[in-house]
Design brief:
9-stranded parallel sheet, globular, Arginase, Chain A, alpha/beta, 9 helices, metal ion binding, binds manganese (II) ion, about 290 residues, two-stranded antiparallel sheet
């Protein structure tokens, strides 16, 4: 199949000015469960060759130009040392693009990515789709289990945060208490399944209406493990993958969203490319949402 007869998402990549910036943050060290999250940006770019630009559901052809801004040089670094490189790489992207997609890396990339918006944290709203609060202690420095705690300590107000998809028996009572005390919005996975993701996201955007800029952390472990084997933290009973895609398209469509990250994809755990193809489709859905921005 030639490029011309089967246009691929990768054909939308440009070395010139793009509408959307894509960057990798191959941070693999500092995970609660050691693994190969650092390989994810490479695998996602490779997998994007398997996606066409045509959405048969809407009859629309994607025509967004994607500026591939390469990877932040963090593959061998611990999260503390990766902070400045990821922040600066993200800042370079967000300064000249309406939307930046950050392919992690473990969830420790979310903290520097938030700083990469280049705004005071008081003006930043953060939505997480994640099975976990990520409020572990910071005694041993930043890790993939504590980016939200780190951001609170950095000065991100709890009322600027909404966490969606929290899983039972995957978090502690102390974390839940902290989230409530800090004013974080908490929506469990069963709440999302009952209400639907768009209803939940609409509420989250109202709650964060005081924030001029939003970022969304898509921790892929929010997805049901059977549909997402390549994420160490994913559990049975998680979010249906269709709901994850619906969320990506909806979020991508909103002007206030300046950055979205996809974290915790570990290609070393993947089965039959399920998670790689999920990550690739996430990029497509973010782009489709972006295309519909008004
Ligand atoms: Mn997480």
């Amino acid at each position: 199949m030639s490029t011309s007869s089967w246009p691929r998402i990768t054909d939308l990549f440009t070395t010139g000015t793009g509408d959307v910036a894509l960057m990798g943050a191959p941070l693999g060290l500092g995970s609660v469960t050691p693994g190969r999250c650092a390989d994810a940006p490479r695998v996602v770019r490779e997998t994007l060759k398997r996606f066409s630009t045509y959405d048969v559901e809407t009859g629309r052809e994607l025509a967004v130009r994607i500026a591939d801004k390469g990877d932040a040089p963090v593959a061998e670094l611990m999260p503390a040392d990766a902070f400045a490189p990821v922040r600066d790489h993200a800042a370079h992207c967000t300064a000249s693009h309406a939307l930046t997609l950050v392919i992690g890396g473990n969830n420790a990339v979310t903290r520097p990515a938030a700083h990469g918006l280049g705004l005071p944290l008081s003006q930043v709203g953060l939505i997480t789709l994640d099975a976990h609060f990520d409020l572990r202690g910071t005694d041993e420095g930043p890790r993939n289990g504590n980016p939200i705690r780190c951001l609170l300590e950095d000065g991100l107000p709890g009322r600027n945060i909404v966490q969606i998809g929290l899983a039972p028996y995957a978090n502690t009572a102390a974390m839940h208490r902290t989230a409530k005390e800090e004013g974080i919005g908490v929506i469990t996975i069963s709440d999302v399944k009952k209400r639907g993701i768009v209803d939940v996201l609409e509420d989250a955007f109202v709650r964060l209406s005081h924030c001029p800029a939003l970022m969304v952390d898509f921790d892929i472990d929010v997805i049901d493990r059977a549909q997402c084997p390549g994420a160490p933290g994913a559990r049975p009973g998680g979010m249906p993958v269709d709901m994850f895609f619906e969320a990506a398209r909806w979020v991508g469509g909103h002007r206030k969203v300046k950055l979205a990250d996809l974290t915790e994809f570990d290609p070393g755990l993947d089965v039959s490319d399920i998670t790689a193809l999920t990550a690739g489709r996430w990029v497509c859905e973010m782009l489709a949402g972006f295309s519909e921005r008004t």
